[in-house]
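Supplementary Note 3. Input sequence used for the single-chain structure prediction.
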Amino acid sequence: MQFFQRRRWVHPDCLGDGLAAFTCQLVWINDHTGLEMAGWRRTDGDHLAAILATTTYDDHAWFLAEVARLQTLAGYGPVNDATAALTVGQDAFERWDSTAGLPGDWELGGMFSQITAPAGTSSPCEGASRWTNAEGAEGQAAWILKDDIATGPDTVGRRENWMLLD
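The predicted structure, written as discrete structure tokens, is reproduced below.
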């Protein structure tokens, strides 16, 4: 299984409108493609304008074809532009491969924590699934803890808490 993440940042002066536009964009994508994107808002630190779109899939060639098809759909440009007008910075894309033993029906709950650290770092939290980077975060591994906010000592790397957008 692969776990795709598209990171964006809403302009702080238009957080409400930006979150609404992002949610509408993902609803549009889900209504017109098979991508099944979920939207998340960061809930920790000084990063409350950070948003994340995620999806899981088993066939990367299918995913690339579906994204390419999305880009050709006549109605997508205005929806994407509406969100882009309310965001700042460059979008960041990351793709992760699950490790052996992850159940085929794995999915995120209403919130999750992600700790990203250099590959080879020991697991920073119990009960987390481990993912290896396939694209976008070279030399990194990620641990994803579902339905709970990660606690414990700080780790080397990136630590984030996310909540599902309505």
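The first strand starts at residue 2 and ends at 10. The chain has a mean pLDDT of 91.
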